[in-house]
Amino acid sequence: MPPRSPSARAPAHPRACAPFVPPLSPPRASADCADRVRRTHHTRRIRRTRHPSCRPCRPCRRALCPGPAPPPGPARVRTRTSPHDRSTELMSKHIAVVGLGSMGGAMASALLRAGWRVSGFDPAAAARSAAEQEGVEVVEDLDRLAGTPYVLLSLPSARVVETTVPVLLARPGTLAVVDTTTSEPGTSAEVAVLAAEQGVAFVDAPVSGGRDGAADGRLTAFVGAEPDALDAARPVLDALTGGRYRHLGVPGSGNVVKLLNNVLAAVNLVAVGEALAVAKAYGVDPAVAAAGISGASGASRASAAMYPDWVLTGTYDSGFALGLMARDAALAVETAGRRGATPHLLATASHVWQEALAALGPDADFTEIARTVAPSLTSEGATAA
């Protein structure tokens, strides 16, 4: 009987080879292919146990064995993060907060708690000191923040935004600028173009929710941005709002809606104050009247929270200045006029806020407008009565 050829010998099986998946058209076997397969799959000789999933290797016709089939259940994928990847992630989560006042300082603290590295600047030494105590890496010169991957602006006006952004873009490295300032729509559109020319995303995202919402990372943001810019800014928006933001349109759209939101709040503060003063004149406890209204169709944040929490308690500590609300109401009416709109009620409310500004000054809390529109609700008014 003739001896068996080497190719007829029982194949050796590697420990855990991948099963063969045939290509669309089987390749021709070649010496190079066979040698490569032999080197790759047949360098070790182990137990010659065949399993149901064994399949032959087409080029060399030697059986490849992937080993026993895994037990049923969901696949477990192990991922590893290299030290380089971790350092890159930490660098990308570096944000500069410009404007460390009541809102900016609270947002900086929220970002720190969310795991961001936070640098900050404010022209006021007291604001810098307070932020530094919270863990913010404070700088004394704005230009030292240029090139930070992310930038958050919380500034007093559109004019300050116009002068601040070019300084921050003086060095490369910035990915996105998120402007939470209640600014002017035209300014936001212009600055977005300037940033885009340097490959930087700019998003106008004025926020609502006050100091407490900022500190807890549960603000509401009104977002104006191009779609690509919005994608670049999402990590910051998510950290500030927990996903509670709405994309309203092109750059500037966020500020249009935020101004309308604020002027409506201004109207509500005046209207609710006058209404509760009437209730008190009829012997109804203003707090009870506010609770009743807040459960019905006349409800608003002014009746549900602002008057009960800040006016009727006499604390007036919302953290938002009367001067800023008077500015926002006037700017909303001005913005409407630029498109030919004539909002008479909004204009009347804005006039009332200007009178309160003259009487109380810009640094008064914005809830102190009750002192001028509903003095009987205030401690001074109650004493006089």
What are the key terms here?
alpha/beta; six-stranded parallel beta sheet; single chain; 385 residues
Describe this structure in words.
It is a single chain. The chain is an alpha/beta fold and 385 residues long. 47% of the residues lie in helices and 10% in strands. The chain contains 15 helices and eleven strands. The strands form three sheets. A six-stranded parallel sheet has the order 5-4-3-6-7-8, sandwiched between helices. Helix 5 (158-168) links the parallel strand 6 (150-153) and strand 7. Helix 9 (253-281) crosses helix 11 (301-311). The longest helix is centred in the last third of the chain and has 29 residues, at 253-281. The radius of gyration is 33 Å and the shape is globular. The chain starts with 30 loop residues before the first helix and ends with a helix.
Gist of the model:
The protein is built from 15 helices and eleven strands.
**How much beta, percentage-wise?**
5-15%
Shape label: globular
The value of Rg in angstroms is 33 Å
Q: Structural class per helix/strand content?
A: alpha/beta
Order of helices and strands: HEEHEHEHEEHEHEEHEHEHHHHHHH
Euclidean distance between termini CA atoms? 126 Å
Beta strand count: 11
Spatial arrangement of strands, main beta sheet: 5-4-3-6-7-8
Q: Describe the largest sheet.
A: 6 strands, parallel
- Averaged pLDDT: 83
Query: Residue ranges: pLDDT <50 for 5 or more in a row?
Result: 5-17, 25-67, 73-90
Give helix % range. 40-55%
- Tally of individual helices: 15
